[in-house]
Amino acid sequence: MEEVREYRALFAVDIVGSSGRGDVALEQIRQVLSAALHAAFTRSGVDWDDCLRHDLGDGMRIVAPAGTPETSLIHPLVHELTARLRAHNLLAGKPTRIRLRMALHAGSVQVGRDGTVSGRPLEVLARLLDAEPVRAALAQAPEATTALLVSEHFHETAVCQGRPGIEPAAFRRVDVREKEFAASGWLHVPAYGGTPQSAGSAPDRTSSDADRTSSESDRASSDADRTAPDADAPAGNTKVISKASGHGVIYALGNGTMNIRGKQ
């Protein structure tokens, strides 16, 4: 069988906690993931039909077409995929919610005429996908939908330049040790709102303490505002005022009475 060596960008995803959901739920989330990946790749200008795809059961490995810019597999692909899965999770029941580990690498692989792909870069991709740092990132951030780990090589070629939509500061260097593989990787957890979120080193303690003090001060001020008495409230009641996004003001009194005043 004739094979050629080609430089390809490699992307892999794995569904967190897929076991134990049952066949029906697993098939549903596989369909949702496939559709989300298709849409995200298309949005990034990567032809889904030209990709070489390998079903991992609870995930997928995707080999991008030759000549695909590595940057397109980060932006807008990663955040497009994250946003689509987050939208799905808002309406899905617990058995069909999806959280993803993701990995990116690139290198020279052997591509057969039948679409089979082999080579060391695929092993590196698999180790990144299973690495402890990306697992821990999702375990420590239950609000996050996805976490991405990219290889040192991919970081150098696609992240460091700071291309539009890719924020180098949003990636944190981590040590990866999986089986025989040991190297550095770069971890990124997309912000819960769908935009890049910094996953840098721990903040300076002085700055962190100052921020915490400021936050506590703001919180105390906010608490004071919520509990401040109002002349319109009945005696002995505490009044809470909350603005309702342009539609009016909600007044909740301490005895449980709620008055809604329309916007004048």
H/E series, N to C? EHEEHEEHHEHEEHEEE
Please tell me what the overall shape is.
globular
- The gyration radius over C-alpha positions equals 24 Å
Question: What is the structural class?
Answer: alpha+beta
Strand content: 25-35%
Distance between the termini: 77 Å
Helix content: 25-40%
Return the average pLDDT rounded to an integer. Answer: 80
Q: Which secondary structure elements does this structure contain, and how are they paired or packed?
A:
Blueprint: E1 3-15, H1 23-43, E2 52-55, E3 59-63, H2 77-91, E4 100-112, E5 117-118, H3 120-130, H4 132-140, E6 146-151, H5 152-159, E7 172-178, E8 181-188, H6 205-227, E9 239-243, E10 248-253, E11 258-262
Parallel strand pairs: 4-6
Antiparallel strand pairs: 1-3, 1-4, 2-3, 4-5, 6-8, 7-8, 9-10, 10-11
Helix pairs in contact: 1-2
What would your notes on this structure say?
The chain has 264 residues and is of the alpha+beta class. 33% of the residues lie in helices and 28% in strands. It is built from 6 helices and 11 strands. It has helices spanning 23-43, 77-91, 120-130, 132-140, 152-159, 205-227; strands spanning 3-15, 52-55, 59-63, 100-112, 117-118, 146-151, 172-178, 181-188, 239-243, 248-253, 258-262. The strands form 2 sheets. Strands 1, 2, 3, 4, 5, 6, 7 and 8 form an 8-stranded mixed sheet that branches. A hairpin with a 2-residue loop joins β7 and β8 (181-188). α1 runs antiparallel to α2. It is globular. It starts with a strand and ends with a strand. The model is unreliable at 193-264 (pLDDT under 50).
